[in-house]
């Protein structure tokens, strides 16, 4: 039986999903999730076993079934829904469920989305449901990094983390509004009803395991918005659908679960590219004057504003974005106390990329670099590689939306800096 099961497992795909262990009575006794179904299930058949109940009881397992998912996030959600539905004994018995995590959606005017642990939920359960203000509760999610999960859900569904704009008071846009990740709760541009319709209901559908239904609904809304010539909303929905179809998982699972997790895309687990930190650069000028450069930093998909840097161009005469970029990179590399990124990204085509690579080679910096060129009509996003490495090219192709967002933020930051200098002059 052991050899038969192992041969079956060797045929499993390396995709994310959940696996189901059955005993001789065809009873489902354990459900687990995996970033790679084959690798995860094979781990039960080799090496010393831990004291986890399921590993001690592997002799009971006579059959294993799997269900593939498109992403680790969806495997996490599917596992939770199956555990809740079937209550397999080795998921429940002997489990310290006090550390299980749940996603809560509040019953506020602009619902909050946050995570709680089982013991926190137990304490809240002593209160009335009205005082708890819980509209929806999803979970449990075992062995999950809740902070990373919330970052991913915030990005996929435009969840607001800012304070709603109050009538009669001045409203300030939050950072996420400025980079297109907040629909305008902070500025009063979106009503409670719109927020629930555009953000909360799609999130609820997704967490219930209805990704296919959600995408169909979003496609209908996108076509309707386009027909009504609301092209901004149609574009937002198009991008949301694209992100849902190719979810870029963060390292959602604890280290005890995945030994060497990659923080952006599951295809890179176990490769030498551990890409988390990205630096983006842009140059802005008014002809031959007002030349400035910007450096923005994203880490684990989040903008790290405290690490942003501004540069007034000192050495370049006339108008030359290429020379300005070379100066900015030279000055940046002198600051060895600033954490180096995993990727350099620049706003520009081949001339900028070639110039930037010269600076990196000169300083013996071996960090991959990519440029994004807008094309002659400034309507394209052509990726220009500073290094011809197959794994890095695959990373860029799988994470184009993220890299474009970094480029756009670098552009916004450079323009803002230049305008602030112009105001000081007048």
Automatic annotation (TrEMBL):
Name of protein: Excinuclease ABC subunit C
Domain called GIY-YIG: residue spans: 14-92
UniProt keyword DNA damage present: yes
Residue span, UVR domain: 212-247
One BP term from GO: nucleotide-excision repair
Domain of life: Bacteria
PANTHER family found in the cross-reference section: UVRABC SYSTEM PROTEIN C (PTHR30562:SF1), UVRC/OXIDOREDUCTASE (PTHR30562)
Highest classification ranks of the organism: Bacteria, Candidatus Magasanikiibacteriota
GO cellular component: excinuclease repair complex
GO molecular function: excinuclease ABC activity
Keywords: Cytoplasm, DNA damage, DNA excision, DNA repair, Excision nuclease
Domain (UvrC family homology region profile): residue spans on this chain: 252-360
RNA-binding listed as a keyword: no
InterPro entries referenced in this protein's UniProt entry, alphabetically: GIY-YIG_endonuc (IPR000305), GIY-YIG_endonuc_sf (IPR035901), GIY-YIG_UvrC_Cho (IPR047296), UVR_dom (IPR001943), UVR_dom_sf (IPR036876), UvrABC_protein_C (IPR050066), UvrC_RNase_H_dom (IPR001162), UvrC_RNase_H_dom_sf (IPR038476)
